[in-house]
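Project outcomes to date are best conveyed with an example. Our students and postdoctoral researchers have been running inverse folding experiments weekly, and each run begins with a structure described purely in tokens. The record below, which covers 107 residues, was selected by the lab manager from last quarter's runs and is presented without edits.
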């Protein structure tokens, strides 16, 4: 299997090499980071209201004064779909003064 030469392509290639079946649905988690808990909570509330198919988990990051908002979507991790979803979450996070910090599959 060939994947584009970027971060998303590299992650998918590593998953494929590890034996993960990328043709079936997985719980894909998109990570958002915030400096303020209130900002992260505001995005979590927005996601709950507008995207009920997405589950969210808000928790303190390992880094002091940073908050993680994990947005989990059940989906087939096809390259184009992962990129589109990541851009969508990044755009939403920016509205709440946060930013995207990558994605992964729950193992």
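After processing, the design step wrote out the following sequence:
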């Amino acid at each position: 299997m060939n994947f584009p030469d970027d971060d998303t392509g590299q992650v998918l290639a590593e998953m494929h090499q590890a034996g993960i079946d990328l043709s079936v649905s997985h719980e894909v988690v998109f990570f958002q980071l915030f400096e303020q808990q209130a900002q992260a909570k505001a995005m979590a509330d927005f996601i709950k209201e507008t995207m009920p198919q997405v589950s969210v988990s808000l928790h303190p990051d390992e880094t002091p004064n940073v908050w993680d908002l994990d947005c989990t979507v059940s989906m087939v991790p096809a390259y184009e779909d992962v990129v589109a979803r990541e851009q969508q979450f990044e755009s939403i996070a920016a509205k709440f003064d946060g930013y995207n910090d990558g994605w992964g599959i729950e193992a």
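The helical segments are 7-17, 37-50, 79-95. The chain has a mean pLDDT of 95. The training component of this project remains on track.
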